[in-house]
Every structure is written in structure tokens, then in C-alpha cells.
Amino acid sequence: PFYYRSLLSSEILAIPHARAFNLHGSLLPYYRGRCPVNWVLVNGEKETGVTLHCMVEKADAGDIVAQKAVSIDFADTAHTLYKKLCEQAALLLDEILPMIKAGTAPRIPQDLNSGSYFGRRTAADGRIDWRWPAPRIYNLIRAVTAPYPGAFTFTKGGAKMLIWWALPEESGMEGEPGGIDMEGGSVLVAAGDGGRVRLLDIEINGRRLKNGEIERYFSNKEGEFLL
Predict the structure, then answer these.
(1) How many CB atoms lie within 10 A of CB 130?
(2) What is the DSSP letter of 114?
């Protein structure tokens, strides 16, 4: 569920006797549109959910039939959050389908003015800006890590570096955003808020590096910058 990319015509929507319904991966009217699972993580939300709604020609704008909320944990990625949403969607359907069959399911109009809409994402949207606060960088990383294209940056030499996993730290780090530092066997990158990002799983030139492998790769690059 949640990722059908084409809008159905009014002729097709008129075919079902009971109505046409759609499962959407957010708590409508918020996060209407594309990629809601990724967007809620990018934006640092603490809660999302699933919505069953009537389908109309406008995307995700029909009356709400049922919803279930899902909490977003600090370590959630788009993949783990998607699995949570699928589990809740199954429970929601078990509860609401008998009501739809009986003709007693609720229909609550959406207030689209109070909601939000987000468009499609591309691989280019995964580029990290090290001037951002460390938590914002982390949210991007977890929103687009595998099976998505991944957050990325560039080394001083121009090599593209994918960051599959990292953790934000609030403790201050002197220097300009993007600066590389070594500490206790770890590689840390300065963020724009004085925090830092600890690299745990990266990929450079097709080579996957984790933990000590990352330290060895950057052993002669301390003081350089990621771009």
C-alpha cells in the first residue's frame, strides 16, 4: 500500500458500487501527496499513521473513513516505519471492512486548508548540507537509507560518499560545518549547530565501510571537509 503513483480517472473511480477507497501512509489531511513515509522522517515528526479515505480525482483529498496513529521512534528508518504502517493498516482494515460492507462506515470531510501536501522526492534530494543542525542531517539519513538511494556528500577529492547510517551528537565540535575529526576510533563530522554526526556505515566508490574501516579510510584526512 501507500505508493501507487498514478491518479485514477473519474470514470474508473465511479465503477465500484460502494466507493473507491485508498490507504495512505499518513494521518490525513497532513502529508497528502507523494512519499509520506520519507517526508515525516525528513521533517522530524514524532507521529504519523495510516488513513483509509474515499478516492476522488484530487490526490488524497477524499473523505476520511478510518485512521490509526503510529509513533515514530528515534531509530526508525523509512523501511522500519513502513513495516509499522503496514501492520496498522491490516488492523484498520479488519475493523472497518465490516462497516463498509454494512454501509455504516463514517465519512469525515477533510479540511485541506489545515493540512499539508508534499511532492515527489528524487535521489538528488539526499544531498547533505553540513550547515544544517546535526538532528536534521540524521533525519535525512534515516529517511533515505536502504532500500532508498541514500543520503550523500562529497569528499575533498570529489568522490561521492553515501552515508547509510550515522548518529547525531549534541556535544560541541569546533570548526566549520563539514569538518572531519577523529575521536576514540570514530569519525565525526561537524554540523552547523555546533553538534556533530558520527559516521557508522558509509560507501565510497562502491566500497562499503563500517566502524573501524571508516576510521582507517579517514586516518590521513583529519581536518579536511566533506562538501
Answers:
(1) 19
(2) G
> What is the mean predicted confidence (pLDDT) over 103-120?
93
H/E run at residue 137 = helix 134-144
* Antiparallel, parallel or unpaired: β 117-118 and 32-33: parallel
Looking only at the bridges linking them, the beta strands covering 47-54 and 64-71 are antiparallel
Identify the three-state secondary structure at position 57: coil
Q: For the domain 123-217, what is the CATH superfamily, name and number?
A: Formyl transferase, C-terminal domain (3.10.25.10)
Give the residue among 124, 153, 137 at the shortest CA–CA distance from 191: 137
Closest CA to 24 of 96, 85, 71: 85
pTM of the predicted model as reported, rounded to 2 decimal places: 0.91
Q: What is the pLDDT of residues 167-225, one digit of tens each?
A: 999 876 677 999 999 888 899 999 998 899 999 999 999 999 998 899 999 988 877 89
d(CA 156, CA 58): 46
CA distance 206 to 15: 49
What 8-state DSSP symbol labels residue 7? P
Residue spans per domain, the chain = 10-118, 123-217
